[in-house]
Specification:
With 544 residues, the protein is an alpha+beta fold. The chain folds into five domains: 137 residues, ATPase, nucleotide binding domain (Nucleotidyltransferase, domain 5), CATH 3.30.420; 57 residues, Dna Ligase, domain 1 (2-Layer Sandwich); 106 residues, ATPase, nucleotide binding domain (Nucleotidyltransferase, domain 5, 2-Layer Sandwich), CATH 3.30.420; 45 residues; 143 residues, no CATH class. The strands form four sheets. A five-stranded mixed β-sheet has the order 3-2-1-4-8, with helices on both faces. A five-stranded mixed β-sheet has the order 11-10-9-12-13, with helices on both faces. Helix 1 runs parallel beside helix 3 and helix 4 packs across helix 9. Helix content is 38%, strand content 22%.
Length: 544
């Protein structure tokens, strides 16, 4: 807080990319009049981006360089469209946000968005084509927090298409366009550039394993790749007829030889050449790794190297992708000084003192209010003791109890009358309405006027019985009935029956108990208490 952070003059750049389960990084130094110098290449296994950044900081010095992050293909969307007319360039982002909302599967109102113009002098029609890069807020927060948690600041978030664009621009001739093809682990990317700007980009769905496999597999994979490349070139020549494609550079991945270039050259009519990084980068500091990197760099290594080519001396007025939220405080580092730090500490102390005094005053006021409430409550209690319950209130409570008893009797009579007039069907419909997957009924017996009921079944979850009987008791056909006996016993498991199934039998008062037996008044709650174990509650009080 009290020391000014060190900064660099913009000549030291570090690119970081997440490659599957690992993190890859490279640091490049730019000096005027010299080739960009690769200081180091680094790659290590890491389950998350944050852990990879921590490991990178522990092994390499990245704090005082400009750090650029590479996004994974699953994190962003690249959409080609036309710029809105009669809208200022500064308002394009907001206009594009709502223009393309139907083409993405995430909310656009808080998405991070950037727009790159496609050069207009490459085509005849008078339009303004653009490429829109959209990053969902959830993915942006993951990347931004990963750097912020380890004390790093993203200068920009780059897409692989724009990083490879910077490499393709190195091979351009005069005002002619140039293409670069790079094979990755799961897919490849073809970019076409002119004057350092991105004209077209296409993902080629050919895995690296098929390109480096057997001759038969490699031939089929390269044929598919060549077909997609030719389709892209045809589209380019039709849309950008005012510019000529001078040739294509192919980055041969590890495990590929010159034969891959020869097979592609037989299928593609534009001139092809192999990418040689030592032509454009100073690799002397890499020692033994220099030759291998120059001829067989991986997809991630090419992306992080391309991301470091944002230095103004090499890029000129080239458009650069940012994909940063200017309103977010994540990653915004402030060069703190001693004076500003002292002011901040003083402000915090003053605010803490004011808050403490306010809390003390509030506590005193609440205590006083509490004492007043306690005094009022004591007075009310004394008044209640001095005035006993009125006989009228007692009589009212007695009448309410009698009313409840009469209502219970009325429900029982209604159930009996309904049975006499409608028979068995409503009982079965009531059981059907309360059906539950863990309880099944296999026995229903009714005698007399329907008041004597025996209900039997099985269950694989005895704890579900209380709630099932409670819901069943709310049905009109079972309302008001008193059950005196609930038998539960386990069923031995065999090949046809799963373990843990128990059978039960619920009997009403008249079905298996004397009407005048005082134990016959066993209510539903007392009977259901027996569900917890394999025992029986009967009208005689027996236990099995």
């Amino acid at each position: 807080m009290f020391f000014k952070r060190k900064t660099q003059e913009g000549s030291l750049w570090t690119g970081v990319a997440r490659d599957g389960t690992s993190v890859c990084a490279a640091q490049v130094s730019h000096r005027e009049g010299e080739r960009p110098r690769v200081l180091w290449l680094w790659q290590e296994q890491a389950p998350t981006l944050e852990e990879g950044l921590r490991a990178l900081q522990a092994s390499k010095i990245v704090k005082y360089s400009t750090v650029v992050g590479l996004l994974d293909r699953t994190q962003y969307r690249l959409l080609a469209t036309e710029a809105p007319q009669d809208i200022a360039r500064t308002d394009w982002r907001d206009a594009m946000r709502w223009q393309l909302k139907e083409q993405v599967d995430f909310p656009v109102e808080d998405a991070v968005l950037d727009v790159l113009e496609v050069p207009q002098n490459t085509q005849r029609r008078q339009s303004c084509p653009v490429m829109v890069f959209m990053l969902p807020r959830t993915d942006y927060d993951v990347v931004a927090l990963a750097a912020d948690d380890v004390g790093l600041t993203w200068a920009a978030l780059e897409a692989p298409e724009t990083a490879l664009r910077n490499l393709s621009a190195l091979s351009e001739e005069d005002d002619k366009a140039h293409a670069l093809m790079v094979f990755g682990e799961e897919h490849g990317i073809l970019v076409i550039t002119v004057k350092g700007e991105l004209l077209m980009a296409r993902q080629i769905e050919v895995a690296l394993a098929s390109v480096t496999g057997s001759n038969e597999v490699r031939g089929a994979a390269l044929s598919r790749a060549a077909l997609e490349i030719l389709r892209t070139i045809d589209t380019f020549e039709r849309m950008h007829s005012e510019v000529v494609l001078s040739g294509m550079t192919v980055a041969l991945p590890p495990g590929c030889g010159e034969d891959v270039l020869e097979m592609l050259a037989d299928l593609i009519y534009v001139p092809l050449q192999a990418l040689k990084l030592s032509t454009w980068f100073d690799l002397d500091t890499l020692a033994d790794e220099a030759d291998h990197l120059s001829d067989h760099a991986t997809f991630s290594q090419l992306c992080v190297l391309g991301a470091t080519l944002r230095e103004p001396g090499s890029a000129g007025e080239r458009q650069q992708l940012q994909l940063l939220d200017a309103t977010s405080v994540l990653g915004q580092s402030v060069p703190w000084g001693a004076l500003l730090g002292a002011r901040l500490v003083g402000g915090v102390l003053a605010l803490g003192t004011a808050v403490g005094l306010g809390l003390t005053a509030a506590t005193s006021a609440y205590k006083l209010k509490g004492a007043e409430l306690d005094a009022d409550l004591a007075g009310l209690r004394a008044t209640a003791l001095a005035h006993p319950i009125s006989p009228v209130v007692r009589e009212l409570d007695g009448l309410r109890q009698k009313e409840a008893q009469q209502r219970q009797m009325q429900e029982a009579l209604q159930g009996s009358m309904t049975w006499s007039s409608q028979g068995y069907s409503d009982y079965l419909m009531a059981l059907g309405r309360q059906a539950t997957p863990s309880v099944w009924i296999n026995h229903l017996e009714m005698t007399g006027d329907g008041r004597d009921v025996v209900l039997g079944g099985r269950t694989n979850n005895s704890s579900a019985l209380p709630s099932y009987f409670k819901r069943l008791g709310q049905e009109d056909r079972f309302k008001g009935r008193r059950f005196a006996q609930l038998d539960i016993s386990a069923i031995p498991s065999d090949g046809n029956l799963a373990a843990g199934v128990v059978q039960f039998s619920l009997r009403s008062v008249g079905a298996n108990a004397p009407r005048n037996d005082p134990m016959g008044k066993l209510n539903r709650q007392e009977a259901l208490q027996a569900v917890g174990g394999t025992r029986s509650a009967t009208g005689e009080g027996d236990k099995k």
